[in-house]
Design goal:
The protein has 344 residues and is an alpha/beta fold. The protein is 26% helix and 18% strand. The mean pLDDT is 86.
């Protein structure tokens, strides 16, 4: 069940091992680290989650799945209709959380921590746990260290793709920017070459002719038809490979470099859904030459639905970070819009 898109970790042990107690102590620590955490709890004794006779319970008993919400909280109650409930729950939660802790489900093939209870020698046979935490000792400290290491490794397993946006009007430049050449190579080819240093796939989004050197083997994506501007290209890429993190560049950034790419990637960390650089204090965030994690897509989709086309608006979300670019690298984010600005 473990996959690059599913940051789920089991907290397992027999009844009385202290699973709920450990999770309860972990949650405030993880929240202070900026992580959004969900917990899936398995209860073999059945659930009592609503008041019999209340409107919401009557609707559920009549056959509906019910979403109940009020000030500061919400609750979703659904019918178990066969199939693997845990897998369905993970599919539902994964796009919205940095970490999912699964209490119980000791026989489910998840990576897990095993909690020993008093008098227990070893965990049951089967998939070996990542760690066995004895009854005595600093369980919280051990679990924190293991989680930090595991989540960092998970974050690095997310596939990394690159996308270059082309097809703007180029009115001020007077010709397609992505076809402008410097030292025998087009701007588009230069940016793609840089992205290939770290990206498994590099695609081009937008309309326009490609240079002959790319025409045969370049992946082309049309801008998605339900958005406008750069947002259409970004959503096109993220919909094409929704489990990937994306480095999105514009074709008019011919100075984007390997050091700039490394600076961007060095700032990827669990709990951060996007990196939009700023070129100095008080400067607006740069939406291109930026990194978008898979979970950023849901925010962009909501922007699209609301008719908010500016990519920069993404920076208003608390899971998006806007660090200031290191000295000497700011030129990599320079947009070239007129012939007089074009580098030779």
């Amino acid at each position: 069940m473990e996959s690059p898109c599913c940051p789920a970790l089991g907290i397992c042990g027999y009844s009385g091992a202290g699973k709920t107690t450990l999770i309860e102590r972990l949650l405030p620590v993880l929240a202070r680290q900026g992580l959004r955490v969900a917990v899936i709890k398995h209860d073999v004794h059945g659930l009592q989650v609503d008041t019999p006779g209340k409107d919401s319970d009557r609707l559920f008993q009549a056959g509906a799945d019910v979403l109940l919400h009020g000030p500061g909280e919400g609750f979703y109650r659904f019918h178990k209709t066969g199939g693997a409930v845990l897998e369905k729950a993970l599919d539902l939660l994964t796009p919205h959380y940095d970490l999912i802790l699964v209490e119980g489900h000791k026989d489910t093939p998840l990576p897990r921590i095993w909690l020993q209870k008093a008098g227990e020698d070893s965990p049951p046979p089967g998939i070996p746990p990542l760690a066995v935490l004895p009854r005595d000792g600093d369980r919280l400290g051990l679990a924190q260290a293991l989680l930090a290491d595991w989540l960092q490794k998970y974050w690095q397993t997310v596939p990394l793709h690159g996308c270059v946006l082309i097809g703007g009007a180029s009115r001020r430049m007077g010709r397609p920017k992505h076809l402008i050449e410097r030292a025998g190579r087009t701007w588009l080819e230069r940016i793609i070459e840089v992205l290939h240093v770290a990206c498994k796939e590099v695609v081009v989004s937008g309309a326009g002719a490609l240079p002959p050197g790319l025409a045969g083997d370049c992946i082309r994506l049309p801008d998605c038809p339900d958005a406008v501007g750069p947002l259409a290209g970004v959503l096109s890429a993220m919909r094409w490979s929704p489990q990937a993190a994306w480095i999105i560049c514009a074709c008019d950034m011919p100075d984007f470099s390997e050091p700039a790419l490394k600076w961007l990637l060095d700032r990827r960390t669990p709990g951060v859904w996007g990196i939009m650089p700023r070129l100095g204090p008080g400067q607006p965030p740069e939406p291109l030459g930026a990194c978008y994690e898979p979970r950023a897509r849901q925010i962009l989709e909501r922007q699209k639905t609301a008719g908010q086309w500016r990519l920069q608006d993404l920076a208003l979300h608390h899971k998006i970070k806007t660090p200031i670019v290191s000295d000497g690298l700011a030129c990599a984010w320079r947009n070239i819009n007129t012939p007089g600005q074009a580098p030779l």
